Amino acid sequence: MITWLIALPALVAALAGVRLLTRRRRRAAVRWLIGANAVLLAGALVLLVAALDGSARAAAPAAAAASTGLGSAALIGASIAVAGASIGAALAVAYTGAAAIAALSERPELFGRAMVIVGLAEGIAVYGLVVAILLIGRA
Questions:
Q1: What does the alpha-carbon distance between residue 134 and residue 8 come to, in Å, rounded to a whole number?
Q2: Whose CB has fewer CB within 10 Å in the chain, the N or C terminal residue?
Q3: Sequence-distant (≥ 6) Cβ neighbours of residue 93 within 8 angstroms
């Protein structure tokens, strides 16, 4: 948990740097963005392998006590649920938000309906969090 609190400002700074780069040089910004994504993916894979290795080592003495190891699987499932729901919500909000802005530019009285549709798209992320909380409760 502390690792994420330390890495969060670095991620925010990296995202701000990407935004600045995309305004100036598109080709260099795309290369930098792909490199940053590759580094983040490699770091996530290292953390995943370390977590799985640590849980396997901790479960080795407990194997005699008939431990099934479902706790780590539930936590990984929770992280996949949150990640998938967040990505899905981001895509849904991107499309519905753009359509809502286009509709509002022609008919401003559609504001309430447009916000309801965008809110429904954001609900996808809430569903992912609910699933993650249920899975963490079983871990």
A1: 25
A2: N
A3: 118, 121, 122
Structure tokens at 53: 């290795």
Residue range 49-69, pLDDT digits in tens: 777 776 666 655 555 444 556
| 36 φ/ψ angles, rounded to the nearest 5 degrees | -65, -40
pTM score: 0.50
Instruction: Find the helix packing angle between 70-106 and 111-138, rounded to 10°.
Output: 180
Who contacts 11 (Cβ-Cβ below 8 Å, separation ≥6)? 40
Q: How many CB atoms lie within 10 A of CB 135?
A: 19
Largest pairwise CA distance in the chain: 69
Question: Rg for the chain (alpha carbons), in Å?
Answer: 20
HEC string of 57-78 equals HHHHHHHHHCCCCHHHHHHHHH
